[in-house]
């Protein structure tokens, strides 16, 4: 890619465990763009709520959490060895904790709180305004970066997504069964796509990719092809 090439914004939305972050991370690396994992930000807020006992019986204490939002400082710091930016919550690396089952089970109700969303959307827009960014999440093409030059919407069969997640978690040493993950996947799909504030939707200008029966390589190739086309188009203008 020529140095003079105008950079674009790329939004990758979709259901959980469709391979969004894997493809987004690699795409950003190959294009020399910044990768922003917005799910990690919702997860970090959830971890904060757990640590500060702001969740009782899976129900967040909304009012208290909203009051504490300004105390939640989030940042991404580049890890040279891993080749991506890790999530920091109030100065502490929380990358491992935010990926565990406890946070996964509680993140959707936290992400459904409007005040949490507007707090994080503001930060995400600041990160994306300079272009040269690949951002993944649920509302990137619809709310965070509605002017993104390329919008991808990833879908995949929930059972296949469960299998992939199971493998990932077992690789990390977490002993977990299929049904626990399957129920979590279905529940998150339901909450994410039915919540009142910025539900997961495919915008008319987004390109859908069904990742059920293609491997990571093929998924990446398709997204890379679309990205190159979008960059060419932006540079012709
Ligand atoms: O992508 P993920 O599984 O790490 O996301 C965690 C949760 O955060 C998911 O249940 C939905 C929510 N989320 C969201 O509501 N909006 C985003 N832009 C990103 C994630």
List strands and helices in order, with pairings.
Elements lengths: L8 E6 L5 H12 L2 E4 H14 L3 E2 L2 E2 L1 H7 L5 E6 L4 E6 L2 E2 L7 H11 L2 H15 L4 E5 L2 H5 L5 E6 L2 H14 L6 H17 L12 E4 L5 H21 L1
Parallel strand pairs: 1-8, 1-9, 2-8, 9-10
Antiparallel strand pairs: 3-4, 5-6, 6-7
The structure holds 2'-deoxycytidine-5'-monophosphate.
The site of 2'-deoxycytidine-5'-monophosphate has 14 residues, from helix 2, helix 4 and helix 8.
Keywords:
Rossmann fold; three-stranded antiparallel β-sheet; binds 2'-deoxycytidine-5'-monophosphate; 18% strand; 49% helix; 9 helices; alpha/beta
Structural write-up:
With 237 residues, this protein is an alpha/beta fold. It has one domain (9-231): P-loop containing nucleotide triphosphate hydrolases (Rossmann fold). It has 9 helices and 10 strands. It has helices at 20-31, 38-51, 62-68, 101-111, 114-128, 140-144, 158-171, 178-194, 216-236, and strands at residues 9-14, 34-37, 55-56, 59-60, 74-79, 84-89, 92-93, 133-137, 150-155, 207-210. A 5-stranded parallel beta sheet has the order 2-8-1-9-10, with helices on both faces. A 3-stranded antiparallel beta sheet has the order 5-6-7, with helices on one face. A two-stranded antiparallel ribbon has the order 3-4. β6 (84-89) and β7 form a beta hairpin. The longest helix has 21 residues, at 216-236. The two termini are 17 Å apart. The model has no long low-confidence stretch (mean pLDDT 94). The chain binds 2'-deoxycytidine-5'-monophosphate.
